[in-house]
Amino acid sequence: MKLKKVLKGIGIGLIVLIALLIAIPYLFKGQIMAKVKSELNKSLNARVEFKDVDISLFRRFPRLAVALEELSITGVDHFNGDTLLAVKRLDVAMNLMSAIKGERIDVYNVVLQQPRIYAIVDEEGRANWDIAKPDTDTAAAAPGDTSSGEFAFSLQQYSIEDATIKYDDHQGHMHLKIDELNHKGKGDFTQDEFVLQTSTTTESLSFAYGFIPYLLNTKAEIAADIKIDNKTSTYAFKTDKISINNLKLSTEGFVQLLNDSTYKMDVQFASPSTDFKDILSLIPAVYSKDFASIKTSGNANFSGFVKGTYSDTQMPAYQLHLGVKNGFFQYPDLPKPVKNIQLAVNVSNPDGVPDHTIVDVPQAHLEMDDSPVDMRLMVKTPVSDLYIDAAAKGKLDLGKVGQFVKFEKGTQLAGLLNADLQARGYMSAIEKQQYEAFHAAGNLSVNNLLYKSSDYPDGVKVSSLHMLFNPKNVTISDFNGQYLGTNFSANGEVNNLLAYALRNEALNGRLALKADQVNLDKWMATGSSESTPSKPADTAAAVPFAVPNNLDFTVQAQVDKVHYDKVDLNNLSGSLLIKDETVTMKDIKANTLQGSMKIDGTYSTKNDKNHPDISLAYDVKELDVQQTFKAFNTVQKLMPIAQFLSGKLSSQLTVKGKLGKDMSPEINTLSGDGNLLLIQGFLKKFAPLDQLANQLNVAALQDISVRDIKNYFAFQNGRMTVNPFRVKLPNMNMLIGGSHGFDQSMDYTMQLALPRALLGQKGNALVNNLVSQATSKGIPVQVSDTVYLNVLLGGNIMKPSVKTDLKEAAGKAAENLKDQATAMIKNKVDTVKQTVKDSLTQVKNQAVSAVKDELKNKLLGTKDSTGSGNIKDAGKAAEKTLNNTLKGLLNKRKNTAADTTKH
User: Fold this and answer.
1) For residue 878, what pLDDT band results from cuts at 50, 70 and 90?
2) Element holding 333 (H helix, E strand)
């Protein structure tokens, strides 16, 4: 019995313990979340967010595990909106009691999963990671004293899993990108001196300094023990366990942290191997293709050092040497080798001043099938005044390259390349247009080039390309080819090719382009928004393309035919200016949709790469309404009534807004105005008029033949406002105005004048009922042979609501129409002269008062009409009444506006 009691007690104790282990994290979750957020935002000048906190006593038992889910640190001020750090999960193991007490938190282990780091130094030297708030405690803490801190790091190990790091130093022209980085370290961080054991691997490492790409998509592995001295902030190391692709390196030295932004360093590195194959592995295309089986011979050497101080204003001295003698390589399953490879590269900087960098490549030679290719390069003073001395010469049958080097499956290459180029002098001579002081000569020609690959399955063909180099520019005298079914020819000039290639300055030039036909569905890798079975399922959706920030280029184009989605453009001409991350369209003309169009506008990704800014001004003439509606999704939103119209239209429009990630306009961001002229058309099956026709028993309202209708509109915030316009029909007339939403909701007022003889029994009953309602309210109404109705159209364009009245809503409706007309005029005048504002208010008040009287007396029948009862006469009377009303209104507006302008 005693044993059962003991076992029972142990069981109960275990259950209680497990319950506590489960409950404790939840009991203190709120406290820990508040503490973490408070500490992060207290110490950082940035926006810190995380989705959730995962707390467990089991994951890192016996320590408390706290994980931040989807942590992000976003910049403020100058780097506002830029994401410095995004981490899928940050897992920290800490002492439970320290978390409960809250005075200090002891951290033992840190794991970062999928961190994405983007570090930037802008042109003015500002760093986006400089987000730590200054320490207000000026008292110096004794070494090892953590009493004043909130966190006490008893760190034993850490790891970083699947990281991506991008570093762009725009001021120092240094760029680093690391993908699939895995790193871990282990050591006793509580000690002043200890050894940190580290292991690092990355699948892709690219590094460029100045205009020189030192590494490109290389694999790297490093295993190093780092001796850390916290008293002097010195990190010393020595290891021969470094590999970059196949190249093995040994290195030793130290890095010392002098302050938060200054480092002292002395690092030497060299390759212990003299095998040319190891150097060859640094060429990505060669390394990725059966590299282990390549036959090689030749000697190589690689060494360098970095020594000095690195800070915001200083760089260390450095030197890099690479040499290859008698290099040779051949794939075992390819017929011919690349041989007689001779290469010497020396990069040096004696004192860390960027302008003192010298790049010297006195020799670069190789032979393919006894065809030699030679190059040399000397670069000095890259910052103050770039000096270059370069030359390249060689003839190459591109069709034979596949006999030396392996291509991706499906790749084809053919054609003849012939180059003989020289350039020597200071860039300042070109900038000052002192072309006689800069030597540049030679030519480059390509004939019968064909290139096919998985990315370009249809192939790129260049029948002929001839480029002539001179001190002023590069002249493209002949450029003919074919791409995606387009035959094109071009000529032009490029004015600063060297500055673009070496300094990444904006490429300036012009190009005159002619083409027979362009299918933009293929060029943009997308088709109609409504997919068809004939199109491949993996066709990419349209996405915004980022306009380069280093182009200043003008293209003058003439294309016989352009096809995009559901539109065919014929005889297209115009110019494109690509500058400042913006494409400007100027005087683009084309015939399309049985009419013509002229377009000016801009497309810019300067402010937002995912939501480009657009501006557009078009002038279209005599387009087919139905084809236009079906061709453009934007027209379907802005002019939904077009689906019920047939005929021709002309329109002028100016609009600004944004595009979405699928390159469609974000409707709610659009603002603009314009006009539309319906030259001749036929309106039928339009639900609002069908419903009105049914109420009035007037079949003539169901199918309406219209012509010469012109109206003005403006749109913003998701709605289009239509200025009141008149529609003249046989025996009846309409005055219509209002607005509709891009969601097809309606809010329109229609004033309709029609002979009572047109009304059927149902319509007359409706009119009599409306008269009775007005009389019951004490409003005397006498209806003559012409009936004047006020119609309110609401609801949705497909499911409208129609309300009809003789008088009760008419006063308000008349005022709404007049307010709307005045408001649209006001917006127009305001863009010309701000001082018209007060006068327009006066115009509005006068116009509203006048139109109330006019519409009440003439449209609504409060005065006796003397019509003969003839339908034709009644129609003329209705037309005359509307004409007089509109004419009086417009004359008053015109005269008042004229008087205002004079003042």
Assistant:
1) very low
2) none
Phi/psi at 830 (5° precision): -60, -30
Is residue 763 a contact partner of residue 755, using CB atoms and an 8 Å limit? no
Closest by CA to 689, choosing from 790, 800, 808, is 800
DSSP 191: S
Tokens of 21: 């282990």
Q: Is 326 left (phi over 0), alpha (psi -120 to 50) or beta?
A: left
Tell me the residue type at 76.
V
**Which pair of structure tokens corresponds to residue 585?**
């369209």
Q: List the beta strands (DSSP E) in 427-521.
A: 439-452, 460-469, 474-483, 486-494, 507-519
Count of residues making up the chain: 903
* Mean of per-residue pLDDT scores for the chain: 78
Q: What is the pLDDT of residue 537?
A: 33
Token pair for residue 284?
Answer: 């990505």
| 143, pLDDT greater than 90 | no
Cβ of 716: how many Cβ atoms within 10 Å? 17
Tokens 């949705």, residue located? 796
State the DSSP H helix or E strand holding residue 11, giving kind and residue range, or none if neither. Answer: helix 2-27
pTM, two decimal places: 0.63
Is 131 strand, coil or helix? Answer: coil
Return the half-sphere exposure (C-beta side, CA atoms, 13 A cut-off) of residue 609. Answer: 7
Asked whether the CA dihedral 772, 777, 783, 789 is positive or negative, the reply is negative
Looking at residue 751, its amino acid is: Q
**What span, in angstroms and rounded, lies between the C-alpha atoms of 771 and 825?**
36
Residue linked to tokens 């909701």: 745
Which of 143, 300, 328 has the alpha carbon at shortest distance from 232?
143
- Assign residue 593 a region (left: φ > 0; alpha: ψ between -120 and 50; beta: otherwise): left
Do 821 and 789 touch, CB atoms closer than 8 A?
A: no
Q: Tell me which residue has tokens 């408070």.
A: 38
In this structure, what is the dihedral angle of CA atoms 532, 533, 534, 540, given to the nearest 10 degrees?
A: 70
Q: Is the dihedral of CA 22, 24, 29, 35 positive or negative?
A: negative
The contacts of residue 386 (CB under 8 Å, 6+ apart) are 379, 380, 426, 427, 499, 502, 503
Q: Which residue has the tokens 């030793």?
A: 252
The distance between the two most distant Cα atoms of the chain, rounded to a whole number of Å, is: 120
Could you give the CA distance from residue 391 to residue 902 in angstroms, rounded to a whole number?
70
CB 227 within 8 A of CB 236: yes
What count of Cα atoms within 13 Å lies in the side-chain half-sphere of residue 356? 12
How far is residue 706's CA from residue 691's CA, in Å, rounded to a whole number? 19
Partners of 591 in beta bridges: 570, 596
pLDDT tens digits, 96-135? 665 555 556 677 888 999 999 998 888 777 888 777 776 6
The closest alpha carbon to 181, from 168, 195, 206, 162, belongs to: 162
Confidence check: pLDDT of 641 > 70: yes
Cβ atoms 449, 398 nearer than 8 A: yes
Tokens linked to 106? 């002891």
DSSP-assigned letter for residue 275? B
Are 315 and 348 contacting, i.e. CB atoms less than 8 angstroms apart?
no
User: What's the pLDDT band for 27 if we cut at 50, 70, 90?
Assistant: low
Number of neighbouring beta carbons within 10 Å of residue 119: 15
Find out whether the peptide bond into 457 is cis, omega within 30 degrees of 0: no
How far apart, in whole angstroms, are the C-alpha atoms of residue 875 and residue 734?
11
Contacts of 642 (CB under 8 A, 6+ apart): 625, 626, 628, 629, 635, 636
Tokens at 806, concatenated: 């003789």
In whole angstroms, give the CA distance from residue 239 to residue 251. 6
How far apart (Å, rounded) are the C-alpha atoms in residues 41 and 21? 30
Please say whether the beta carbons of 846 and 896 come within 8 A. Answer: yes
Q: What is the DSSP letter of 858?
A: I
